[in-house]
Amino acid sequence: MKSLLFSRFFILLPWVLIVIIMIDVDPRRPASLLGRQPHFSPYAAGRWGAAPRGNAQRSPLLPRDGSPDGGPQRGAEQPRNRSQPPPAPPTTPLPTIYAITPTYSRPAQKAELTRLANTFRQVAQLHWILVEDAAGRSELVSRFLASAGLPSTHLHVPTPRRYKRPGLPRATEQRNAGLAWLRQTHQHEPQRSQPGVLFFADDDNTYSLELFQEMRTTRKVSVWPVGLVGGRRYERPLVENGRVVGWYTGWRAGRTFAIDMAGFAVSLQVILSNPKAVFKRHGSQPGMQESDFLKQITTIEELEPKANNCTKVLVWHTRTEKVNLANEPKYHLDTVKIEV
Predict the structure, then answer these.
(1) Gap between the Cα atoms of 98 and 100, Å rounded
(2) Residue 93's pLDDT band (boundaries 50, 70, 90)?
(3) What is the DSSP secondary structure assignment for residue 84, as one 8-state letter?
(4) Which residues sit opposite 221 in a β-bridge?
(5) 77, 290, 328, 339: which one is catalytic?
(6) Which domains does the chain have, with CATH numbers?
(7) Angle CA(331)–CA(334)–CA(337) in degrees, nearest 5?
(8) Spatial separation of the C-alpha atoms in residues 124 and 306, rounded to whole Å
């Protein structure tokens, strides 16, 4: 009898133990209590918390002072007289170069304007004032400026017929129109609010990019040599001890300012401070307009020599060869109309 009971007991015992274990396991209990505790590595002290004080090992990823950026820890003593870096000086705006270019209708007009625009595109902070010798803006120049990709102003003023005779100064009205636009545009601005430099850039000249770097620092009136002008390889101001003392020229050396139109630049503030300074028609002889204009705004002692004390030629009075159209038909014969 006892053997029968023991045999049944040993048969049921494993099943009772399995039931007890299953009852003891609560599926709603958090999984973290059944698993291992997280390992707090000293390399993860900044994420999981500080390492135990008894742990002498220090993270090699941190500086010796324990701060992530190498600075002092919170609560550590700060240096009292910590020098601050000096504030950055205010940036000076780059002076704008205003290039006044008279132009007139002719077969090579677009070609010369294209060459000039290719130069101007490489000059920072330049505003092109293009003045046509015409009663209105031409479609050719308007389309050209629209596609040139340059800050520009398109003006027009016709030259009176009586001033178109050979031997008389040219482009007088156009240069004066550019001066009038500058004064009208900047008349309400405070003094020296916008630094700028004025330059008369004829469309038949060739300009080095270095020239624009030189003229941008003009304080009042700056001067430099001009190549292929006056019947000579070049003309230039004569400089001694950094000051202009005379002129190397082949034509009318007695002029007060024996200089070509491409040989000087004027500060915008000088133009605004002398509102009556213009190119004169009456009383100005041919070839004297540059000198007559400069006499209204400066003296020879105030001139600022550029281009290595006026020993480098950075602009050339090249002029385009007269176009030969001897075989051009009188009437348009092509099936398409092409702008040249």
Answers:
(1) 6
(2) confident
(3) P
(4) 266
(5) 290
(6) 96-316 (3.90.550.10)
(7) 90
(8) 19
339 catalytically annotated: no
If phi > 0 it is left, if psi is from -120 to 50 it is alpha, else beta; for residue 138 that is beta
Q: How far apart are the first and last CA of the chain?
A: 129
Q: Are 51 and 42 in contact (CB under 8 A)?
A: yes
- DSSP secondary structure of 148-209: H-S-EEEEE-PPPGGG-STTS--SHHHHHHHHHHHHHHHTTSPTTSS-EEEEE--TT-EE-H
Banded pLDDT at 8 (limits 50, 70, 90): low
**Are the C-beta atoms of 151 and 126 separated by less than 8 Å?**
yes
Instruction: Label the pairing between strands 126-132 and 96-103.
Output: parallel
Q: Which residue has the higher pLDDT, 108 or 57?
A: 108
203 belongs to an annotated ligand binding site: yes
| Residue 204 is assigned to a ligand binding site | yes
Which two structure tokens, joined as six digits, stand for 117? 């625009």
Helix (H) or strand (E) holding 109: helix 109-120
| Three-point CA angle 176, 180, 288, nearest 5° | 25
- Cα separations in angstroms, 66 against 7, 28, 50, 53: 69, 42, 11, 14
User: Which contiguous run of DSSP H or E holds residue 265?
Assistant: strand 264-267
pLDDT-wise least confident of 36-50, 149-163, 167-181, 286-300: 36-50
DSSP classification of residue 19? H
> How confident is the model over 168-195, as a mean pLDDT?
88
Residue 5, judged by CB atoms within 10 A of its CB (0-12, 13-18, 19+), counts as exposed
Q: With cut-offs at 50, 70 and 90, classify the pLDDT of residue 2.
A: low
Whether residue 102 is annotated as binding a ligand: the answer is: yes
Residue 253: closest CA among 287, 276, 203: 287
- Compute the distance between CA of residue 301 and CA of residue 72 in angstroms, rounded to an integer: 62
Q: 281 a known binding residue?
A: no
Q: How many CB atoms lie within 10 A of CB 205?
A: 24
- What is the C-alpha to C-alpha distance for residues 337 and 249, in angstroms, rounded to an integer? 46
Average pLDDT over residues 34-58: 41
